[in-house]
Amino acid sequence: MEGKDVNCPACNAALNCIDGNVPKFCHNCGAKIEVSEKPSGSAAATDKNLWIATGKEPVYMISKMVNRHGLVAGATGTGKTVTIKVLSEIFSDMGVPVFMGDIKGDVSGLCRMGETNPRVEERVESMNIRDFAYGKYPVQFFDVYGKNGIPVRTTISDMGPLLLARILGLNETQTGVLQIIFKIADDNGLLLLDLKDLRSMVQYTGENAKEFTTTYGNITSQSVGAIQRNLLTLETNGGDIFFGEPSLDLRDWLRCDEKGRGFINLLDCVTLFQNPMLYSTFLLWMLSSLYEMMPEVGDLDKPKMVFFFDEAHILFNDAPKVLLQKVEQVVRLIRSKGVGIYFITQSPSDVPDAVLSQLGNKIQHALRAYTPKDQKAVKATAASFRPNPDFSSEKVLGELSTGEALVSVLDENGAPQMVQRGFILPPKSFIGPAEPQQINELVKKSPLFAKYGQAVDRESAYEVLLDRQKQAAALKQTAAPQQKQTAPVKKTTSRRMSPADKALSSAMTTVGREAGKALIRGILGSMKK
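The structure assignment produced for this chain is given below.
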């Protein structure tokens, strides 16, 4: 209850609220008055309690437990998209930046003022939300292809061999050769910025495989050929667009607007999602880079950032065991860096148990049980909740209506609270996509557009190796007449560095100084900065 227009729940008499304070007892019938902390709108009730849903009573998420990760699951059409919109609004209101991918193009309405909507009005009335007001949120639009947002690029060196091998669809042997190629480049400070850099490095390694095999391991011509072919396919599918510079600095995500609200960083994935492997790997690169960049902060009152991973099942489908282990490690460790990860998928069974066990906050929309496999998944999902004596979770999972969910969150000590059934709060922003013209205006006005709008191509491995090839050809041409005039000399077992090798060594040393010695990689192969 609030200190205005408050009636006694027993006799309905108007209470005399002095200075906004609700009396402890009714002056008319003497009934004890229970004061509720129900918040207004979809913002937080206090700095600690975040109101996210209402059933028999409000359901709160504890702000310092937001970085204990979460899961939003449910069948198609059950309300997952609106739920993650509401969560992003709540986090933004509390000053926490958010990242999410917009797969269907219908989340962009976050930047647009909400409009009168009968379903929203009904939800506001049924939940007794006081002072609800439509609004819009600060959104930064990004797009790998640079059409519907600020261009997003990364370098080949920054992505690393493990994630790149997944994009290229390499087998275990080919992945091992790719790792050798990256190691040779890293050890010599050669920057692999774009696809032409990597193609040049693959070609150079293949041509000198015998010299590298002793130090780095076996390099087969078959694996080199497979990598080259798959690089050509990737380039045909637009890889030359998003590999390059300026590379995205994820620190630009960690911003708040003039009102102290966290920016919602929205990546347009409508086109990117047409290649699910590329989509999931690109988001995984962002997540691993965020992990490498963020310092250890321990337990905070609220997270530094929240990362939404939509269609999360794609990340885990057919992923090699070594990658799954590293993903699990990132999810487990990034919490102490103040980052919360929320996976969005149709069923909790889409997420490996090792990762699922680390997701403390769960919003489970309706599940359909049409097959024995589906029924088994429903039972497993219901069993994962702390039971509520008021209902059967297994039965309720098939009865939930659109926008309704079973909600299980952590208490202040990190223990799961009793599962609650309730409706998720309505969003304040516009339900649906924003107009393309509005998105374009926001993109052009953003200071980040000036930073990332224009691609640059500085000297890197391609130029160094091309220069080496030219120098070697020139030295060979110069040395040819001299060899005809010089008497043959007896061969020795010692190997001297050829002029061409000296030219390469000099070029590598120059680039190495610019790169800052050998490059260092993190858990998923991303560059440590």
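Interim note for the steering committee: Confidence is low (pLDDT under 50) at residues 36-45, 489-495, 506-517. The first helix runs from residue 80 to 93.
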